User: Which sequence fits this backbone?
């Protein structure tokens, strides 16, 4: 049975956007609904987005974060302890910033604003144009170096460096084949892929990351490009004696060169599936999204009581954008209010009085339009945000309805077909499955690049890298690069701070054109565990314009249902990674709590918690390998411990309903500035040079997760455990258990045989390690341990009749 709670008071932000900004006042909920002041556009309505920026807020403690959530503030996933409290980041317009200051919040300077967005868009457009121009013709290959050499122990190595005229396009793949000496065939010595080398975001050339170990000196090599270029060259001997390199195989990486929209990402995955049919399967998820589409709209009037707007019945892309509407002064006295329709042109002749002055109110026009049979087939009219509409309207010229969508024609307006790339040599369900998914939140532009880079590395390195081959052979990997394609398209082309999808559940009172950037559902609040509908904090069930609107019900959104469908239909999925941005976090369940008493979802058991912590050491070391980025210990741990409550998130869904061990990355760790000796936040959409580095290092992290998953999948080693005396005092002894690896311990203190129904060693508390057990008299402790992979210590059968469990007497003085 669901718990009940007071509805969260939200109206985009503090009710400031419940009315036009010109009517907003300093305290929430105090706007005057009857005022006839001139209407300024909402933060969401203007081309420059009315100065919206990513702002710093400092609160005293986590209760301040909960308060911001309750007020509907659009918070980023970023929490940082500072000297005077906790720093959080929020997306705010200048008016919203001032309203929070008037509430007593310490709103500080901006991290990024619309000028940063404009620079990103310009940079991406230039990169896309360059890629498109390169794709038009066969590339030219220029060989910079081709040589073999020996190290001090006479091991032979091959070194090749080639520049492609299309190398700025990250989809350009160069392959080198070589012979086994004069007179032998090209390819007889081997074939492998070169790695694309960039510096400061600029393409330099293709090469081996490390010289390639070979067994015979070649004389000729042929380099071919997937763009059509080919060149054959002599391979000479390098006379130097360089220091021996580490490793005996090349590893190729760096397959992203600009921010990518979901259409590009999906095309990339489709191409990979076609190129590697023996290692991949492209899965069409069953639920198509709403699509990058909206109804067309037009708004008339400037004062609240006289504003009306119309919305097409058809989507703009399906004819709504062809509709026009005019409000006409008939130029005669005592004229009646009439509506006429010709094709897709709606004309409203306004009523006048005896002196010829217009008398039609907004409400009257709305009623007339909605009551006209032909007009009602084309559109619906509404007064402004529930206003009574008693103000007299003004005549206008012909106004074209528009869906206001700005993406190019290459972005389809139809419902989006989400696709998962399944990678593995054995894709029959016999191998442990790992689910990697990205961009649940639209504005997190780096995250799909992490999924793209991860997929490319797995497939491009399979033939030449033994470690990659082990991963792909021993696991069943599912990669969903964009969970929220509609919102991501909208973020890239219309409103960069879009977080949600594009499904509009708002009633007429919130569905005017100025609110268009506030519509949608937060996909990562739409799941069924720890949801706002169950009383958990960090989402809204009542405000359709809240940035954390959870939707009308749990799993209402096709994006969320697609995730659930995947993990339900492939029950071999045992581990997952949900990649978000920004802040540099590594987190796991539980992810939600109820504000009252801070009632947290049940914590994972101590064995799983230990597995999370042990795995984090390895995975975050892999992240750090790329450029030295360290994820702080304070940003590593359960979501509720290191961030805040996120009601209805996907990691909780998969863990509590299916036992899937799931992590959350927040890419984009703070960058340390040695000049100021301060860490600087990078934001959702850093310049691509920084975004590229984040994609590379967290793709390293994804490979680390897969390595952890492979160790889990192939683990046949039984754990070992012992009793550990913590403290002895007269009359009592305190002990716990020590285990050789992350494992759960089941024990009894009454002399009985331990089973899976026996007490299980628990966690002592948040970040406090395992519990201690105190006994008051000499006690026989019987126990066994079982690791996360299911290996039971000493091959003990808890459900059988064996006696080979551990046994020890704990003495009390």
Assistant:
């Amino acid at each position: 049975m669901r718990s009940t709670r007071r509805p969260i008071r939200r109206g985009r932000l503090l009710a400031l956007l419940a009315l036009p900004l010109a009517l907003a006042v300093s305290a929430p909920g105090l706007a005057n609904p009857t005022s006839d002041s001139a209407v300024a556009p909402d933060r969401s309505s203007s081309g420059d987005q009315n100065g919206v920026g990513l702002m710093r807020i400092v609160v005293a403690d986590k209760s301040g974060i909960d308060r911001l959530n309750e007020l509907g503030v659009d918070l980023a996933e970023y929490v940082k302890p500072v000297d005077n409290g906790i720093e959080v980041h929020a997306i705010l317009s200048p008016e919203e910033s001032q309203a929070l200051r008037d509430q007593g919040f310490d709103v500080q300077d901006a991290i990024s604003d619309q000028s940063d967005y404009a620079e990103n868009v310009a940079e991406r457009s230039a990169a896309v144009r360059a890629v498109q121009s390169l794709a038009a013709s066969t590339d030219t290959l220029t060989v910079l170096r081709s040589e073999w050499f020996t190290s001090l122990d006479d091991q032979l190595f091959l070194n090749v460096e080639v520049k492609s005229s299309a190398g700025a396009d990250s989809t350009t793949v160069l392959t080198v084949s070589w012979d086994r000496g004069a007179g032998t065939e090209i390819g007889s010595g081997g074939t492998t892929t070169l790695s694309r080398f960039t510096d400061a975001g600029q393409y330099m050339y293709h090469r081996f990351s490390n010289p390639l170990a070979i067994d015979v000196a070649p004389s000729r090599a042929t380099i071919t490009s997937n763009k059509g270029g080919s060149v054959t060259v002599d391979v000479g001997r390098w006379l130097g004696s360089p220091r021996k390199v580490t490793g005996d195989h090349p590893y190729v990486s760096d397959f992203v060169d600009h921010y990518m929209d979901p259409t590009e990402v999906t095309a990339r995955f489709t191409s990979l599936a076609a190129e590697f049919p023996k290692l991949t399967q492209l899965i069409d998820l069953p639920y198509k999204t709403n699509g990058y589409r909206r109804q067309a709209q037009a708004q008339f009037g400037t004062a609240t009581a006289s504003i009306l707007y119309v919305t097409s019945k058809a989507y703009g892309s399906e004819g709504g954008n062809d509709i026009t509407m005019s409000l006409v002064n008939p130029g005669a006295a005592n004229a009646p209010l009439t509506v006429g329709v010709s094709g897709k042109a709606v004309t409203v002749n306004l009523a006048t009085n005896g002196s010829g002055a217009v008398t039609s109110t907004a409400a009257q026009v709305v009623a007339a339009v909605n009551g006209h049979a032909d007009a009602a087939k084309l559109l619906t009219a509404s007064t402004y945000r529930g206003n009574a509409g008693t103000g007299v309207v003004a005549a206008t010229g012909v106004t074209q309805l528009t869906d206001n969508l700005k993406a190019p024609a290459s972005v389809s307006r139809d419902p989006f077909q989400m696709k998962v790339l399944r990678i593995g040599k054995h894709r029959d369900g016999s191998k442990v499955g790992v689910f990697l998914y990205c961009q649940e939140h639209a504005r997190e532009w780096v995250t799909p690049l992490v999924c793209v880079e991860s997929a490319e590395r797995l497939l491009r390195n399979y033939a030449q890298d033994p470690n990659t081959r082990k991963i792909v052979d021993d696991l069943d990997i599912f990669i969903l690069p964009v969970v929220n394609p509609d919102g991501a398209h909208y973020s890239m082309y219309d409103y960069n701070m879009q977080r949600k999808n594009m499904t509009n559940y708002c009633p007429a009172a919130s569905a005017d054109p100025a609110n268009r950037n506030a519509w949608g559902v937060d996909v990562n609040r739409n799941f069924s565990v720890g949801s706002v509908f169950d009383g958990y904090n960090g989402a809204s069930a009542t405000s359709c314009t809240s940035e954390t609107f959870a939707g009308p019900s749990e799993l209402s959104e096709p994006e969320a249902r697609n995730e659930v469908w995947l993990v339900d239909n492939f029950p071999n999925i045992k581990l997952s990674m949900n990649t978000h941005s920004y802040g540099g976090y590594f987190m796991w369940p539980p992810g939600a709590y109820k504000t009252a008493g801070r009632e947290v979802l049940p914590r994972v058991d101590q064995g799983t918690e230990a597995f999370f912590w042990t795995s984090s050491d390895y995975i975050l070391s892999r992240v750090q390998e790329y450029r030295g980025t360290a994820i702080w210990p304070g940003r590593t741990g359960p979501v509720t411990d290191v961030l805040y409550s996120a009601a209805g998130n996907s990691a909780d869904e998969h863990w509590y309903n299916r036992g899937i061990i799931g992590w959350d990355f927040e890419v984009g760790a703070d960058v340390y500035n040695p000049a100021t000796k301060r860490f600087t936040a990078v934001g959702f959409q850093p310049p691509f040079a920084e975004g590229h580095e984040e994609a590379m290092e967290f793709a390293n992290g994804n490979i680390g997760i897969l390595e952890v998953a492979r160790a889990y999948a192939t683990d046949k080693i039984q754990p070992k455990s012992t009793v550990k005396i913590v403290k002895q005092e007269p009359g009592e002894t305190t002990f716990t258990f020590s285990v050789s690896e992350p494992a759960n311990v089941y024990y009894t203190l009454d002399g009985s045989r331990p089973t899976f129904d026996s007490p299980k060693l628990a966690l002592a508390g948040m970040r406090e390690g395992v519990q201690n057990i105190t006994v008051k008299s000499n006690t026989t402790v019987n126990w066994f341990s079982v690791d996360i992979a299911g290996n039971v210590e000493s091959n003990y059968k808890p459900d059988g009749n064996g006696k080979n469990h551990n046994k020890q007497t704990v003495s009390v003085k």
Remarks:
- The radius of gyration is 31 Å.
- The mean pLDDT is 89.
